[in-house]
């Protein structure tokens, strides 16, 4: 089975009764065998984009190309795309087995072939004990896995997954994440994956697409997205706890936060007012710097999150879980790395002196 | 104590009409079927099962039984199928949907007697609308209501015409409850129009189908108005169903014993039908 390239050019979707488009001039190229993760706030158009690619939602304007051919008007059934629906969309009158076998039966595969494929997928997803049950007798997580299984058995060159693990417990989710990645590595299926889970986005993606209000904010590898966010939104959207942001003044390469000099830039940037973004792990605890009054701490096993106030700024930093701090005490901190955002909230990509 | 009284009241009051109009008449009817009462004279004698013997061996009964089954089969299936077909068509179109729904539903709210009178004009052999159209199409123009070959079909057509819109309304509701996503999955999985109907639509509306089959089957056993107005069971008993036979025995021949025997048999037949449908339905109805 050959993996397939998907090209999206100026793709726009506007519902008839809506004032503004849900998706506006979307451009992206998804390479053969690539694993793409789409993230973005609820309602930003992730599902809509997938549904257009799948062919179950009409395209208002722009082009969708699969393997170089424009498929805007190709019916869904001829696109050979497997999709996991956000709402599962299982057939209530069919057993788990029949739900998973539906597409294969319709495509007239041999009985033994269907049986083998369904059992293989059920094994992978831990669904063997439930094959004879109807969806209404399953838990949410089990239903979700059936939806996933129905897509897996199809062996399509394109695999769309709309939050396929959202309903699983943490352990099962980690396990399924690994299984899906293994599956992807062995089949090399071109995959588009929607998720709200940071870990999934960071660990699974070849490239991440960040969407907001139907517009692409940034496309890049997880590292690029995390280390070099294109704008303030991307910076704060990915990463947990969130990137610390605060307004600063820049005078001759020196960054001032409320009159305290906190960093020296290596680049020449016009003086003026900016916003900086500092990841929680990018703070250094120093002798003199920003005096931070600790309000509370959270121990998350290996990491310790320290929440503190400096004047009216709230700052979170992450440090080793073995250290202890007293609430109400004051520590001094300095950024070792930061993002500088201009008035349009675009990143100007600066480096600190000595970085 | 007070609670018991409340229960007795709430169960008891609805039971009064049920007793008066259903249980008591039924028991009296079964009792009458063992007598030779002639509907008028005050005296009668018991004949035990003679009425049943008489009825079950009479050719009129056999003919009526066959007519009932024939009428039931050819009204229930087409009514349900046509109802579904209309629902599928009406649902697709956007403009004038309410108008068409209304138009197709009007026959159901029109009294059967009125409908039958109008249709007996339509069936009029020489100037009736039906034969005018058939003549225009160069098709045979039968004597609809007076030819034993065609009379039953005439009754069947009216009955279907009256009930199809009603079935359509139930199907429209059932269809609107199927989530779009189930069809979208079907599209993705490669389903064509037939697959969609066979594997998605039909199973998901099967409870409605069962409901409609049961109700129209019972309705077909109780058909009376259209037969009374259009053919009075004739010609040559070709439109005489069991219920109409009961009516003729009771109120034309005043043979109450045999009539109530037929009535009892109708009840048994209905029970048998319900029983069969209940068991058969387990195989194809998905709740
Ligand atoms: N049929 C429709 N008609 C009008 N607007 C719609 C329709 N379907 C979706 N929308 C709107 O389109 C926008 C994008 O929806 P979409 O389902 O793509 O969001 P999403 O990014 O998948 O969100 P989530 O993360 O919550 O699943 C939403 O604002 C939604 O209200
Ligand atoms: Mg969605």
Automatic annotation (TrEMBL), chain A:
<dbReference type="GO" id="GO:0140359">
    <property type="term" value="F:ABC-type transporter activity"/>
</dbReference>
<dbReference type="InterPro" id="IPR003439">
    <property type="entry name" value="ABC_transporter-like_ATP-bd"/>
</dbReference>
<dbReference type="InterPro" id="IPR008995">
    <property type="entry name" value="Mo/tungstate-bd_C_term_dom"/>
</dbReference>
<keyword id="KW-0547">Nucleotide-binding</keyword>
<dbReference type="GO" id="GO:0016887">
    <property type="term" value="F:ATP hydrolysis activity"/>
</dbReference>
<dbReference type="Pfam" id="PF00005">
    <property type="entry name" value="ABC_tran"/>
</dbReference>
<keyword id="KW-0067">ATP-binding</keyword>
<dbReference type="InterPro" id="IPR047641">
    <property type="entry name" value="ABC_transpr_MalK/UgpC-like"/>
</dbReference>
<dbReference type="InterPro" id="IPR017871">
    <property type="entry name" value="ABC_transporter-like_CS"/>
</dbReference>
<dbReference type="GO" id="GO:0055052">
    <property type="term" value="C:ATP-binding cassette (ABC) transporter complex, substrate-binding subunit-containing"/>
</dbReference>
<dbReference type="InterPro" id="IPR003593">
    <property type="entry name" value="AAA+_ATPase"/>
</dbReference>
<keyword id="KW-0813">Transport</keyword>
<protein>
    <submittedName>
        <fullName>ABC transporter ATP-binding protein</fullName>
    </submittedName>
</protein>
<dbReference type="GO" id="GO:0008643">
    <property type="term" value="P:carbohydrate transport"/>
</dbReference>
<dbReference type="GO" id="GO:0005524">
    <property type="term" value="F:ATP binding"/>
</dbReference>
<dbReference type="InterPro" id="IPR015855">
    <property type="entry name" value="ABC_transpr_MalK-like"/>
</dbReference>
<dbReference type="InterPro" id="IPR012340">
    <property type="entry name" value="NA-bd_OB-fold"/>
</dbReference>
<dbReference type="InterPro" id="IPR027417">
    <property type="entry name" value="P-loop_NTPase"/>
</dbReference>
<feature type="domain" description="ABC transporter">
    <location>
        <begin position="6"/>
        <end position="238"/>
    </location>
</feature>
């Amino acid at each position: 089975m050959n993996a397939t390239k998907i090209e999206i050019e100026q793709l726009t979707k506007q519902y008839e009764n809506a004032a503004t488009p849900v998706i506006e001039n979307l451009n992206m190229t998804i390479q053969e065998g690539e694993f793409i993760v789409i993230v973005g706030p609820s309602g930003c158009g992730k599902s809509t984009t997938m549904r257009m690619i799948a062919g179950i939602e009409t395209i208002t304007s722009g082009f969708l190309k699969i393997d170089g051919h424009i498929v805007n008007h190709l019916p869904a059934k001829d696109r050979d795309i497997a999709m996991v629906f956000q709402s599962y969309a299982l057939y209530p009158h069919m057993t788990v087995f029949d739900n998973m076998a539906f597409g294969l039966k319709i495509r007239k595969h041999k009985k033994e072939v269907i049986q083998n494929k369904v059992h293989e997928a059920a094994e992978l997803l831990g669904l063997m004990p439930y094959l004879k049950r109807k969806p209404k007798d399953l838990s949410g997580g089990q239903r979700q896995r059936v939806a996933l299984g129905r897509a897996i058995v199809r062996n399509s060159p394109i695999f769309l997954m709309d939050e396929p693990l959202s309903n699983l417990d943490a352990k099962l989710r980690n396990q399924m994440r690994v299984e899906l990645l293994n599956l992807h590595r062995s089949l090399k299926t071109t995959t588009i994956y929607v998720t709200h889970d940071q870990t999934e986005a960071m660990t699974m993606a070849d490239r991440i697409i960040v969407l907001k209000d139907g517009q692409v904010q940034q496309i890049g590898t997880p590292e690029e997205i995390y280390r070099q966010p294109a704008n303030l939104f991307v910076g704060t959207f990915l990463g947990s706890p969130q990137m610390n942001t605060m307004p600063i003044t820049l005078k001759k390469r020196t960054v001032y936060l409320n009159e305290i000099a906190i960093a020296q830039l290596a680049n020449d940037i016009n003086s003026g007012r900016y916003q900086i973004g500092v990841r929680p792990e990018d703070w250094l605890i120093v002798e003199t710097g920003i005096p931070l009054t600790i309000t509370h701490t959270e121990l998350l096993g290996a990491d310790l999150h320290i929440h503190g106030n400096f004047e009216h700024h709230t700052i979170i930093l992450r440090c080793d879980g073995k250290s202890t701090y007293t609430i109400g005490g004051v520590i001094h901190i300095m950024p070792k790395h930061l993002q500088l955002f201009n008035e349009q909230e675009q990143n100007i990509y600066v480096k600190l002196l000595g970085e | 104590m007070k609670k018991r009284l409340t229960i007795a009241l709430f169960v008891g009051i609805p039971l009064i009409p049920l007793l008066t109009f259903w249980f008591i008449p039924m028991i009296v009817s079964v009792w009458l079927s063992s007598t030779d009462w002639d509907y008028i004279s005050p005296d009668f004698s018991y004949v035990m099962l003679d009425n049943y013997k008489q009825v079950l061996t009479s050719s009129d009964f056999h003919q009526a039984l066959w007519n009932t089954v024939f009428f039931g089969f050819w009204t229930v299936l087409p009514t349900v199928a046509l109802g579904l077909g209309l629902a599928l068509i009406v649902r697709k179109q956007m403009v004038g949907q309410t108008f068409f729904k209304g138009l197709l539903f009007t026959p159901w709210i029109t009294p059967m007697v009125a409908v039958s009178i109008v249709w007996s004009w339509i069936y009029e052999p020489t100037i009736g609308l039906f034969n005018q159209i058939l003549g225009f199409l160069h098709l045979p123009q039968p004597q609809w209501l007076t030819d034993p070959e065609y009379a039953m079909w005439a009754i069947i057509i009216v009955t279907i015409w009256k009930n199809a819109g009603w079935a359509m309304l139930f199907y429209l509701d059932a269809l609107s409850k199927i989530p779009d996503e189930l069809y979208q999955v079907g599209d993705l999985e490669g389903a064509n129009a037939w697959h969609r109907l066979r594997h998605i639509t039909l199973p998901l509306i099967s409870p409605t189908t069962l409901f409609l089959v049961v109700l129209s089957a019972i309705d077909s056993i109780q058909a009376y108005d259209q037969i009374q107005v259009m053919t009075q069971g004739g010609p040559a008993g070709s439109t005489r169903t069991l219920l109409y036979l009961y009516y003729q025995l009771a109120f034309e021949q005043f043979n109450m014993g045999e009539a109530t025997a037929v009535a009892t048999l109708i009840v048994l037949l209905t029970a048998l039908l319900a029983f069969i449908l209940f068991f058969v339905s387990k195989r194809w109805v998905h709740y």
